[in-house]
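2024-03-11 09:14:02 INFO worker-7 job=invfold-0412 stage=load source=structure_tokens
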């Protein structure tokens, strides 16, 4: 076997999260000392005929562990597959027949061995132990968790809040997956980030019955091509941030950058990060940003951002950082054995640098981002009082309308690319007809009257906001025009407005992605930004005494 350091390096490469790394080290040390392989578990439910591309990420990691000498156990969920994993589902999955499950399972076996060594891989079917459980055994199993604990799962929570049914058999799924771990005495279980709850359930059940708890290793997901979890920006982001940028560029000197350093607060697959970054820049340009009027660049191309972020980070307290909305939100949702990366905690310091480096008068932000601008003002004032006048105190610039576009299916929450169903969010690069359908199916209310009232009519108020921003008509004018018309015609007209707006962006986006246009713009933008940033940083460094130059 390879050394502990070598194994740990191989295991950690490309993984998103390990729970718990200290315990993993102990297991590896014991394995090496006793020359006994660890039992590595991966569960696959044969709920579809084929293993998809996303499975290759974890299978390749298993192959690495197999080459290290560890035992790979693939559990094919012929029993659990009849239910289907409810993770991420907005409704119960249909039951599969024994014939469907077995047929799918057969193809899974064939496909797994395209990556794993057949001679060194153990295939087990979980009906081997789950089908033998008595009703008493099942009751004992259910006593290991609570309904409240189950409702902590985001998918169950959303369905409960939206009054969508949750069936008791779905509650059993995480318990059965957990039982799989106890049946084989798994040392490590692999899964995607969407499997966190189920994976931890196995760990908790093992503790409950006195087994040594498994290590949970989560791999990044490969996002689908259906538009559900695309990195492409949403219509809400376009209206709330990108479109105002376009309107501001004729009025202000604009400095716009893609905050790719901030994106590192969570693991990013390198090739996806590169693609998503380029896509985002293309979208900004397609939406109308003019590089002749706007300084556009990548944050990482101007190193002064990170350097000033460190200086300012030394002037902000942990208490201030812990009160930031994003950190508080993450901390409040932490589950047992979870932690928050230091990047999430510290990123406001980098944002302070982003804001203050160029002496802006205004910072375009959404309502939910005003707190960051306020912190930047506080730090600027603190620095000025300590070292003399150095930074301007910027003001937040919040769009009068459109700063917060809401979800089409749940108009009480912000439109977000992490939308569970994909129906409440319009992605800028969505097929035009798909976007129109989402508008037509948007939630409103039953009285069919069109007027603006966020509290009592959040759905129609949200649609009026979208219509107003994209058409240039005032909300009052739209309300007057659609008096007595009804929701059907209103939505149909709005769908056309949205479709026309997106079509213009699509056409420009395709044009922009020809040749080296983007590279040229970014290089020129970075040169301009770097010149300004260097001057400001030099001034800061003289003030704080970090340089011997006066």
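2024-03-11 09:14:09 INFO worker-7 stage=emit residues=550
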């Amino acid at each position: 076997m390879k050394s502990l350091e070598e194994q740990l390096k191989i295991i950690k490469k490309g993984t998103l999260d390990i729970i718990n790394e200290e315990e993993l080290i102990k297991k590896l040390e014991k394995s090496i000392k006793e020359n006994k392989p660890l039992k590595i578990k991966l569960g696959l439910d044969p709920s579809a005929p084929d293993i998809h591309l996303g499975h290759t990420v974890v299978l390749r990691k298993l192959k690495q562990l197999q080459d290290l000498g560890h035992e790979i156990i693939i559990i094919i969920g012929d029993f659990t597959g009849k239910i289907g994993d409810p993770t991420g589902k907005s409704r119960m999955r249909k039951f599969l027949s024994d014939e469907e499950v077995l047929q799918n399972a057969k193809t899974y076996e064939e496909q797994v061995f395209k990556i794993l060594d057949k001679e060194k891989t153990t295939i087990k079917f979980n009906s081997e132990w789950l089908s033998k459980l008595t009703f008493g055994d099942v009751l004992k199993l259910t006593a290991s968790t609570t309904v409240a604990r189950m409702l902590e799962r985001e998918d169950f929570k959303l369905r409960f809040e939206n009054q969508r049914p949750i069936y008791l058999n779905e509650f059993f799924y995480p318990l059965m997956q957990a039982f799989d771990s106890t049946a084989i005495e798994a040392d490590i279980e692999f899964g995607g980030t969407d499997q966190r709850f189920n994976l931890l359930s196995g760990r908790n059940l093992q503790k409950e019955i006195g087994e040594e708890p498994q290590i949970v290793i989560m791999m990044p997901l490969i996002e689908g091509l259906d538009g559900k979890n695309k990195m492409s920006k949403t219509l809400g982001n376009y209206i709330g941030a990108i479109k105002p940028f376009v309107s501001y560029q004729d009025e202000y000197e604009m400095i716009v950058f893609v905050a790719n350093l901030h994106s590192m607060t969570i693991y990013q697959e390198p090739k996806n990060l590169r693609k998503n970054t380029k896509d985002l820049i293309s979208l900004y340009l397609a939406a109308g940003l003019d590089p002749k009027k706007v300084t556009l660049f990548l944050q990482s191309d101007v190193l002064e951002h990170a350097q000033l972020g460190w200086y300012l980070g030394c002037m902000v307290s942990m208490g201030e950082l812990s009160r930031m909305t994003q950190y508080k939100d993450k901390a409040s949702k932490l589950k047992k054995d979870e932690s928050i990366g230091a990047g999430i905690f510290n990123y406001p310091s980098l944002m302070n640098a982003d804001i203050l480096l160029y002496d802006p008068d205004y910072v375009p932000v959404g309502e939910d981002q005003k707190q960051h601008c306020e912190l930047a003002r506080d730090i600027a004032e603190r620095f000025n009082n300590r070292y003399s006048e150095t930074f301007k105190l910027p003001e937040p610039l919040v769009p009068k309308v459109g700063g917060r576009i809401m979800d089409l299916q749940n108009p009480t929450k912000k439109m977000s690319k992490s939308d569970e169903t994909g129906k409440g969010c319009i992605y800028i690069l969505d097929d035009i007809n798909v976007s129109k359908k989402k508008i037509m199916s948007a939630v409103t209310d039953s009285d069919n009257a069109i007027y603006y009232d966020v509290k009592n009519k959040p759905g129609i108020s949200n649609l009026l906001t979208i219509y107003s921003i994209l058409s240039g008509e005032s909300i009052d004018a739209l309300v007057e025009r659609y008096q007595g018309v009804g929701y059907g015609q209103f939505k149909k007209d709005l769908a056309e407005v949205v479709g026309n707006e997106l079509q213009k962006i699509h056409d420009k986006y395709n044009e922009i992605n020809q040749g080296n246009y983007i590279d040229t713009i970014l290089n020129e933008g970075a040169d301009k930004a770097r010149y300004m940033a260097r001057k400001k940083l030099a001034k800061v460094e003289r003030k704080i005494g970090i340089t011997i130059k006066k």
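2024-03-11 09:14:09 INFO worker-7 stage=report msg="The mean pLDDT is 81."
2024-03-11 09:14:10 INFO worker-7 job finished
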